[in-house]
Design a protein that fits this description.
Helix content is 48%, strand content 12%. It is α/β, with parallel strands linked by helices and 283 residues long. It has a six-stranded mixed β-sheet, sandwiched between helices.
């Protein structure tokens, strides 16, 4: 699987399972949302299964098989059993597995990053450089991680994407992750995103010095229309999802403090454009 290709190799367990799931669904005349409702999951998750971006657990597969409209007679569970080792593949670790679905179904995403460009806005070259820095990573692992990260970004191009509000430290624009060519492309991507409807990007200038966000580290808050929000915090060993309402509220207070440190929109865009020129001028 090449970097940037979110789809599994043709003939792989994930590809075959996904193709068979799609075959049964289409034959039954069901949409992904309709099948998701029958199997007690979202239509987006059914799409992820069909495209091989996510792998269903055996119980989830049994729930899909149990939908009488699909008329599988247990074929998908049998296929899962035959492919058991291959079906254990996970693009994301256990503690992160359901967060991409949270992102995709949120009405708004608020993301603060003090050190790096947020994952949903990373270019392929930048993401590759970030993951390559992991000690002991193999080529296959690198390719899979980059592909999974780029697949997550489809959230921003779906029919009704969430609004995205990003606040990042200026240092993330100055650190030469992957080299000058990579940074020029990456900052250019941020400028494009800043002009996209529904996206806000603000920058905390380096002159600010110490601020609340540096103590908190990177985090994201997913907001939902008419429902409780959820949070995600980056940690050294593994990330941590925040579901308790009081904890999400506490994270929102940190967000409010970070907002007060950020430059207004026009000034943030001007800083992005200046950063892009700085990478160009040295090439």
């Amino acid at each position: 699987m090449a970097p940037g290709d979110p789809n599994p190799p043709k003939g792989s367990p994930r590809a075959v399972f996904g193709a068979m799931l799609r075959h049964y669904r289409v034959t039954a005349g069901l949409t992904q949302d309709q099948l998701g409702s029958l199997a007690h999951v979202s239509g987006k998750l059914i799409s992820a299964y069909e495209n091989g971006w996510r792998v269903p657990t055996r119980p989830s597969t049994a729930d899909i098989d149990a939908a009488p409209e699909l008329n599988t007679h247990g074929a998908l569970t049998e296929l899962w059993d035959q492919f058991e080792d291959g079906m254990s593949y996970q693009a994301f670790p256990d503690w992160y597995q359901d967060w991409p679905e949270v992102e995709a179904t949120a009405s708004r995403l608020r993301w603060f990053e003090p050190d790096l460009v947020p994952g949903l806005l990373q270019t392929e070259g930048y993401a590759t450089a970030v993951y390559r820095s992991r000690f002991g990573i193999t080529t296959d692992e690198l390719e899979s991680l980059v592909a999974a990260r780029l697949a997550r970004q489809r959230t921003l191009s779906q029919g009704r994407p969430p609004a995205v509000w990003v606040i990042m430290d200026e240092w993330a624009l100055r650190r030469p992750v992957g080299g000058r060519h990579v940074m020029l492309e990456q900052v250019g991507r941020l400028i494009e995103e800043a002009h996209r409807p529904g996206t806000v990007i603000q920058v905390i200038p380096a002159s600010t010095g110490m601020h609340t966000g540096l103590n908190a580290g990177g985090f994201m808050i997913a907001d939902f229309d008419g429902g409780p929000g959820a949070g995600y915090q980056a940690m050294p060993v593994r990330g941590q999802q925040v579901r308790d309402a009081k904890d999400v509220s506490a994270l929102s207070l940190v967000w409010d403090a970070v907002v007060m440190e950020a430059l207004p929109l026009a000034a943030s865009l001007a800083l992005l454009e200046e950063a892009a020129k700085s990478w160009t001028s040295h090439m």
